[in-house]
Amino acid sequence: MTSAWSRRTFLATSAALTAAGGGALTLAAPGAASAAPEDDPYAALRTTWSTLILGEGFSPTAEPFKSRLADLGAKASRWLETMAPAEGSLWPDAVFADPDPDTDAESYVLSGRMADSFIRLNTMAQAYRQQGTGLTGNTGLRDAVLTGLEHLNTQVYNDGQTRYGNWYSWQIGAPQALLDVCVLMYDAIAPERRARYCAAVDHFVPDSAVASYTGTSTGANRVDLCRVLALRGVVGGSAAKIALARDALSPVFPLVTKGDGLYADGSFIQHTTVPYTGSYGSVMLGGLGLLFALLKGSAWEVTDPKRQVVFDAVENAWAPFLFNGLVMDSVAGRAISRGEVDDHRRGHPILASVVLLGRGASAAENARWRALVKGWAQRDYYSPPLSNPSLGLTALARLKSVLDDTSLTPVPEPDGHRLFPDMARATHRRPGWAASLSMADRRITYYEVGNGENPRGWHTGSGMLYWWGDTFANGQYSDAFWPTVDPYRLPGTTASRKVLADGAGGDWGTSLPDVNWVGGVTDKKRAAVGQYLKGLSSTLMAKKSWFFLDDTVVCLGAGIHSRDGAAVETTVDNRNLGPTGNAPFTVDGSLKPLTFPWSATLSGTSWAHLAGHGGYVFPGGASVKALREDRTGRWRDINTAGSTDPVSRKYLTLWFDHGKDPSDATYAYQLLPGASEQRTAARAADGGWLRVLANTDDQQGVAVDSLGLTAVNFWFGGSVGPLVADAPCSVMVTEHGDGTATVCVSDPMRMRTSLTLTWNRAVASVVSKPATVTSATAGASLRLVFGDLSGTRGATQTIKVRLS
């Protein structure tokens, strides 16, 4: 490393760069692309990239852009004032020199600071190029950026340095920011310096980084690496690098059947075992949109026909997890522990990426997506996208263009169910509310912990049932939920109170339950879903079923067993009531105290209602526990980069206490999102509305005669109500009012080579059936024989029949 620079030396060098021939050249007008020969394809790409990262089509004097540009200028000014190049650092608070370089936690932090130093320079370069920042065209800022680049190249990011800490910092974080700066300040950087910066990128991100679609070079990471290679080609004038980047995208496009990527059912997996639509999936979607736009119309345009898979995934994979502007935490992995970016702030970049991606899609897709985005953005009353402080100017401009487009009619939230067996997730939408379910099995991890993030997400895969209202409770998981909630009492989960260490089970989603039966069936409107649960680092076992219906989710649990020497609980709900927490709570018509703390055992409870949220019905009555409490935590508790400031939120928790070391414990309840107190009481009083046909360790099933519905999860073969199965399966039968019925069947275990199902109901004929049905016999009863279901990946097989 070079000797440390004093601040005086740094300032003197920055001011004298141009005069001393240090490489600073005359820059084009701030905010405009640099002049270049018309036949220079690299200059054209630099112009395109500058527009993509600086934005277009907005007025710097109009809000929210005026304030955002001023904030950008203020941030850049802080970095300018505090920059002090020294041995091993560019800023005093961002020391990157590693006295013992390896891959331990300390090295991870130090490599992150190196990448962050480039990101700060990128902020400064954008403030220089953007209008309205107060630093537009400021030569001192320009020279500081150039000096910072040179210092980082000399000190740490060069072709002679061995990387330490986090690979991501060296291969994605740092080079993306470095290359952005090189594009924005291209005419001010001497060719010799650009060559050295490109050599550094080549050193850390060689062509071999995308030679095989494995390890850290898949999904979102692969797209990020391709962005680096493409911009390296743009900055260094290398057609081969750009072509490599384009071609290396192709493995991302095809649907996969294992590992990372997009699946036919709409699942998206990263890190082999983690559902990641809302985090890594967002990065991939945004990265593809940028690269498609960068290369469009050039000699390197992305023309692989399989790119249509990504276009199709907008509505098949991303849209199901977007609700009124937020992206559901059930597919955000360890990102839920990042306090500065909640589910709404993670959702808004996806909306902007959909708008950008639409430019490369068909006219019909583009128009439909813009209408979808307008609906999501307009309905986000809790956190309006144009007020999102973490959303970049370009994303803001795209969303504002959609919101201002009077030709667009916002698309409302859909009505129906989506089941994602390839990532053990489900979403359910009904008028006024939406829900999401997260589970775990031998392919999908309990939770992900890594880089000091999400060390207490232990039970998020134990049947956590999230739900939101359309005009209420949109901030349920946004308002400091994760650092303040009791991690042993997550809504919908069954968990042992056995104390777990932070990060229990291992980093990066390596801990998987040894279970196969996880999944269910859906007719796209309703669903029966089940999870054979084995607890993380515990002896807990349980059978859990959810029946997603028109205005309710019926929740059953059975076979609950544990020998941990600890209590086992099933959390009916755990509602974040915010800082004040004064929502009235009523049980069987009796209003309970609003004081904190308050707790009670509610024996023989028929129903309960939480004002502003919804209702809960307990068929036949149940003994449940309730607690009002004020909980305090810190984001640092669940993320080593989080704030140490304490935050407090009030909660109302309702749960079944199965006791210490239970054997064959059960539970049953209905969740009624958004229901009034009167409707909740009426449902409880209507004892015949729901019939629980079975709730045992062998089968769980329900019937709702008014809906013509019978649904059973067969953990083992047997007979439940009118249904008989000779092997494990999930079944849902719906009789329609037109003399027809639909039978939905799946093998959640993905291993049946034969299955026989009998429905004891008079059937005149079979109207249609899938190829998996090798024999269908109508008559006094319907008998279906299925062939090999192992290749259906747990997907629903639908048979339509005409009733006698």
Strand residue percentage: 25-35%
Give the class from helix and strand content and strand pairing.
alpha+beta
| Global Rg | 28 Å
Q: Count the strands?
A: 33
| Net shape | globular
Distance between the amino and carboxyl termini: 85 Å
SS element count, helices: 16
Low-confidence stretches: 1-36
Report the helical percentage.
Answer: 25-40%
Averaging pLDDT over every residue, what do you get?
Answer: 94
User: What composes the largest sheet?
Assistant: 12 strands, antiparallel
Could you explain the architecture of this structure?
Residues 691-756 form the Polysaccharide lyase family 8 C-terminal domain. Residues 1-35 form the signal peptide. Keywords: Lyase, Signal. It comes from Streptomyces anulatus. InterPro entries: Chondroitin_lyas (IPR008929), Gal_mutarotase_sf_dom (IPR011013), GH-type_carb-bd (IPR014718), Lyase_8 (IPR038970), Lyase_8-like_C (IPR011071), Lyase_8_alpha_N (IPR012970), Lyase_8_C (IPR004103), Lyase_8_central_dom (IPR003159). The longest helix has 25 residues, at 105-129. This protein starts with 6 loop residues before the first helix and ends with a strand. Strand 22 and strand 23 form a beta hairpin. The strands form 6 sheets. Strands 10, 11, 12, 13, 14, 15, 16, 17, 18, 19, 20 and 21 form a 12-stranded antiparallel sheet that branches. Strands 22-23-24-27-28-33-30 form a 7-stranded antiparallel sheet, with no helix packed on it. It has a 5-stranded antiparallel sheet with strand order 25-26-29-32-31, with no helix packed on it. The protein has 16 helices and 33 strands. It has 804 residues and is of the alpha+beta class. The protein is globular.
